[in-house]
Fold each of these.
Amino acid sequence: MAVKTLTIDGKHVSARDDQTILQTAREAGIRIPTLCDLPGVGPLGACRLCLVEVTGVPKLLPACVTVVQEGMEVQTNTERLRRYRLMIVELLFAERNHVCSVCVANNHCELQDRAMEIGMTHSRFAYQFPKLDVDTTHGRFGIDHNRCILCSRCVRVCDEIEGAHTWDVSGRGANARVITDMNVPWGEAASCTSCGKCVQACPTGAIFRIGATVAELEKDRTQLSFIVNARENKQWLG
Amino acid sequence: MDTTDLLEIAERERAARTPRRLRCCTAAGCLSQNGQALKAALIEAVKTAGLTDSVEVVGVGCMGLCSQGPLVQVDPDGPLYEKVTPDQAPAIVAALNEPSAPADDVRVGDPTHPFFAKQVPVVLQNSGKINPERIESYIEVGGYQALCTAVREMQPLEVCELITASGLRGRGGAGYPTGLKWSTVAKTESDRKFVVCNADEGDPGAFMDRSVLESDPHRIIEGMAIAAYAVGASQGFVYVRGEYPLAISRLKTAISQARRLGVLGAGVFETRFDFRVDIRIGAGAFVCGEETALMRSIEGHRGTPRPRPPFPAAKGLWGCPTLINNVETLANIPAIVANGPEWFAGLGTGKSAGTKVFALAGKIKNTGLIEVPMGTTLRTIVEEMGGGVPGGGSVKAVQTGGPSGGCIPAEHLDTPVDYESLAQLGSIMGSGGMIVMDESDNMVDVARFFMEFCMDESCGKCVPCRAGTVQIHHLLTKLRSGKGTARDLDVLRELCEMVKQTSLCGLGQSAPNPVLSTLRYFHNEYDTLLNDPMTPATKPLQTSTETR
């Protein structure tokens, strides 16, 4: 295994040659905002919050899937990137019905955290107010599509960790929805093992435990990385 | 099966030919105008006239001039009849033995019109001439000779070098050098490799690939087989959109004919090269024309793009090196192998070799398909060949590249059509759709139309494309209804830049182009729509001053 050296925001760092820019930055204590990324499951490169500038590359690169190279010069926090990140979060808030004050995930929500971190005070875009369903047929868990940001973490944990592949995405563009099995109510999805990993993975209050009240939906993401670490590295460390 | 056998088949085909033939277009354009009934009527008329021994009615592919269809042409060297109806069939048959034009008001086309005279057919060489449903018809005009030469007399890398030397660039839109792509796949080591023909043509107004598949399907198979030999693949897929049922059926026929003749399958032309082609049918998503989404779809997954790198040449279908070329690119291959790279390079301009097929649509007299050498000016294409705006109006703009391209204003009509010149004007070559607009067209509407298209076709995976196109469309609608402000225009511009820079795949990265190009050349049309027209937009686009 070879080691590469590169600079991130002017700081010299080293990384194994199979590491991504995001992993390297995290190890070096450099913060890059993310939303669809979830340690333990495969990267997606879809939320575009982790885009970084690399000297000599005309396009912006997603840090979560871009593997490091020797001598790479990475900028993670330029004025342009901050402007784009702000717009991405604004777009997400305008897309569906994100009302923090009545959300179970208030104060435990990654979308909310990113908005505060990036400095969003309001959205400049027109709120779409789509009419979306809430599915509580499962009994223990529910999904509120109004709060879904289509990060597909639920799809990936269910497929890659639980191996059930109950979740998937149907529809296109603004009509895209996460669905259970062949678009049946969650309660009728025969493949669901009710393991609750999707609840842990969901960054917002979209997938929730039934019975949790506002601001109660604390999530334990370490549970997922614990399982992956145990399975892949045979290390049972908390 | 070798060259001699091919020549023998061609000879037999020529001997079986009747002295006169009536070529009747059976591509989708003419079929939609009652072409099938016309063909039946012609067959009937020939029978009635007792000419079955000397005249054959042949169904052929597209002859190009779709606006004047259904078309019938007398072979050899006979007149071209336009807008033929089934009841005119007896008159046409009767005229076969008379030098004067037939009565019964049959319209005769002018073969010296620039629409035909200025064309240089390479890709469309056989379109409208051969029967697309018979492999012998393709072999008769020299088909599969290039494949035979390649697999029997050339080394794979030699074929790659030949394509590199020709200067051929991808005809799907981006213009990536084809030879470079081929040699990358050829040099990547793997037990399994794939060749994919991208026939998921989806740009509004574009129908080049459909026409080639309907008119000359064997050409694509031959191009794919040569590509597969060059890169070391033994499996090919043609990814065709489901909206092209005729193209699919002709392709299926062609594949089974080629397999039966030993042109495809195990031991192509009795060599150790095996090649199999299968068809995969798209289910209606525009994004599946994007190569990574296309591969996901072939693999049987939801067709969504993934970040590149890794490029398909390194990790494509099922993780194996995969060569993906567009229909038109592959259709050029047999001609390049047959005529040599110098011939092809001599056809176009320096950086853009060869010819390009364009689908003319919109406010233009002669809608249809043309093939011209690269470097031909837009004016020649639109005004001379296309005949300009029907009714004599003036051209306002030409839209190239579909939803990924831009609008080129009339003052730039003298621009030569090549990859670099079009990019400089803020548009792209694209796959070949060319939509002409006249003075009655509102450019904000044009931008809005394409944005609506992208909004509907966004796969929804990445946020900028999924949510950004919705907001751009919303802003354009607001501006169009006269409720927009200068502030909205600023947000629109900023949002377009962001979507372009941050989207995951080509669809999102190019979706703002129609808006940006109309903002660049037709800024006044946006300004006049503002609710507060006295207040100029706070940040006028830098380029708008130099172009107006």
Amino acid sequence: MPFVVPKENYTGRIYTVEIGTGEKAVKVGGANTLPYLGFEGEIPNPPAIAIEIQDIPAKDWPETLKKPFDGVTDDPAAWARFCEKELGVGIIALRLISTHPDYGDRKPEEAAKTVEAVLGAVSVPLIILGSEHVEKDTQVLKVVSEAAKGRNCIIGKAQEENYKTIAASAMANNHKIIAMSQLDVNLAKQMNILLMQMGFDKERILTDPMSSALGYGLEYTYSVMERIRLAAIVQNDPAMQPPLVSDIGRNVWKAKETIASESDIPEWGSVEERGITFEAVTAISMIMAGSDLLIMRHPKAIEIVKKTINELMER
Amino acid sequence: MLIIGERISILAKKMRDAMLSRDPKPIQDRAVAQVEKGADMLDVSIGPADDGGEALMDWVVKTVQEVAHVPLCIDTTNPKAMEAGLKAHNSTFGRPMINSTDGSEERMNTMLPLAARYNADIIALTLSGSGIPATAEDRCGIASEIMSKALEFGLPLENIYLDPLILAINCMQDQAKEGIKAIKLFQEINDPPMKTSVGLSNISNGCPKELREIINRTYLSLLIYEGLTAAIADPTDKALMDVVKTTEMLMGKRLYAHSFLDL
């Protein structure tokens, strides 16, 4: 008797979220099966990758990470253009880190100017991230959301303490939103329900369950994402069906393994190769757990992950 | 958990009047209200309907599905009216369900072929011509007979919902736990497990009105614990629907969040 692969029938499907406009628009999500179990359902869109840039020069980034962006980080628009044109990246994630009270405390209006400049420089979709300072993000994201009207961006991140204003402005200006919670599956669900209850279309939400780097709590993130995906696909839970976002670059490039110099720890080998591998391995773990959108930093790590995704999607 | 709304029944005076005078409004209002409150299917019961049953069922099915875009559980003992209901049913919303067959030759020979011909699900009451079995094990025996008969007629076992026949607590108290046990045992008859269903409100039939809801809700919770697939119940009873969600949540079949009842 020939072997018949046992198949599960799933009832749930991840919402398809489209970001950006025109030819460069990107769709994320849409799967009705668990990650890469393509024989049990369909995975219409492979995980998308966004490259992270900042609104101020990346002074605190390690040298190996600054190198690929040499000469462009002084101007966010130039940096964004470089990523689209030279690196061929499909999505830009602009982090407005300088709005944080401890990193310059720039005003919302200044941030809006940066957003406008970046939007003027690129045609790929833009993810606009605040500084994750709960109060300041409320002011900043409201204003930048208006400045980006019509470009179908992702605005992030809304948290339990500040989601109302952020969601209202994202809704008014037709953007998508990232709903973030603190590494807890029940809080992630609650956050999505709260947004839905204020009238935010559930098919415009992306869930960030809070990412971490390899060796720094990755397994917690992995378990939470796994559980979210099981609720979405197997239990058909509508509050858990938004695509998952993994904002990993900033965690990875803070880890000792990506920073420690070769002279300090010679047995760890090349610092550049080590950092790239660390980011790639973290990212690949996240897509295994169900991530639909990665926010990463090093172009070479992105290349490796893209190649891996292509190989996985071929099966 | 599949909730089959029970409120369109000729036993209710309001529904009977509407059915007999072909007045769609009261029926459609009830249909919409039940779906809004979370019914996955609606039971439409016209009773034995010896006189004009076919025309009545045809009208009821179309009237309900005009406003409620869910599959229906077609409830009559009249085989001709049953077939009329299956023909009228719009299966783009899901396949219809026959309510019901039991273990008697006569019912099996009429209802099982209908289920096979119209690709319908069917509720199979585990009672035979000789009456209601005393134990859960006896119910399993009848279930097996119905299952083998179904296969003879080419009806897949996944279309069958085994129903232990819930009896009123006030006259046969011991039967309540036999019903619970039957739900557990039915699933063990086959791999993959058989689907199960109950007519929930039977449990509190004849009890004082103020006791009925608490008995229904608690009994449903126990049945869900044993793996019940479907219940014919009142979805407009919010507390009952909350019990379904909460039991499923406690069983790990639904993810907890502070607002999980709101969804």
Amino acid sequence: MISLSRGAVQQIASEGERAYPNECCGALLGKDDADTGRVASEIFPVHNAFGSEEQYHRFAISPEDCFFIERDAERRGLDVIGFYHSHPDHPAIPSEYDREHAMYWYSYVIVAIERGRAGGLTSWRLASDRSAFAQERVLQLDVR
Amino acid sequence: MTITIKIPTALRAFAEGQREIRAEGATVGEAIANFASLYPDIETHIYGEGGEPRSFINIFLGEVNVKNLNGLETTLADGSVITLVPAIAGGAPCR
């Protein structure tokens, strides 16, 4: 299970709508420990670094942005616990391309954007043998 | 020489939960190899079958991607900081 602040969920939806018909992307920052479980308290939106002609169904976060995200999270006592992106006019279900490019452990949040409006939001984790994603429950928290 | 390697959250589980470790090495490649030898479970997550770093991982020395330096042959100074950074991509199925 992953807990997301309601503000983070709203911001992911807004980012997806703003980027439509292209994909948005960013990082989930928060904590994952035995006491609280996995909690994403904020998001870190970044530029979609994939080639502009393919952004309608692809996203990438540049190595430099990933480095900056890691450093920013560390300085603020947070961890990078996952990443999010949108699926324009497609369900919030990971694609084979998503699976091929995912890393074990992280949460991958996907928001469906249907004709410019945010729809379902799901979260997934890759199996340790990289064979498949498993959906995890998303709990929305009323905190910022 | 002793350097620091910062470990991304996704790989900490294979390194006893540590955020960073100290390692020895004259080059980036040596330091990463020494790190991987300390934590064998992490090796398959860093190296592909050909022994090169996987495409999922980018390696920064200070604030510079070593791809823009001399790759794994980039030389280190005492106190250098290496950061392992995940490569992130994905997207919806083709329509």
